[in-house]
């Protein structure tokens, strides 16, 4: 599917850029010129970016710290 008509950029091309290291819309814009003409593709490109970015994997210690903060327990000394 073509996402950016102005620059003929497809969703698969955007995904390949993300796989190759693009981390933000600015990265995609710089590499593919998406959103740089009429801008109508920006929302769709951002959605693909959100859906295709790899999930952040936290270590168990960081997960426990974040869980404690969410419960209002604060940080626990190691
Ligand atoms: S559709 Fe992407 S800049 Fe126009």
Automatic annotation (TrEMBL):
A molecular function (GO) term: metal ion binding
Keywords annotated in UniProt: 2Fe-2S, Electron transport, Iron, Iron-sulfur, Metal-binding, Transport
InterPro entries per UniProt: BFD-associated_ferredoxin, BFD-like_2Fe2S-bd_dom, BFD-like_2Fe2S-bd_dom_sf
Keyword Transit peptide among UniProt keywords: no
A matching Pfam family: Fer2_BFD
UniProt keyword Transport, yes or no: yes
Domain BFD-like [2Fe-2S]-binding residue range list: 2-51
Family to which this protein belongs: Belongs to the Bfd family.
Protein name in the entry: Bacterioferritin-associated ferredoxin
């Amino acid at each position: 599917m073509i996402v950016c008509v102005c620059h003929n950029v497809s969703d698969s091309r955007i995904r390949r850029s993300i796989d190759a290291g693009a981390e933000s819309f600015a990265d995609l814009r710089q590499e593919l010129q998406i959103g740089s003409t009429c801008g109508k593709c920006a929302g769709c490109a951002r959605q693909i970016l959100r859906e295709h970015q790899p999930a952040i994997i936290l270590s168990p210690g960081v997960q426990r710290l974040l869980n404690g903060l969410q419960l209002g327990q604060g940080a626990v000394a190691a």
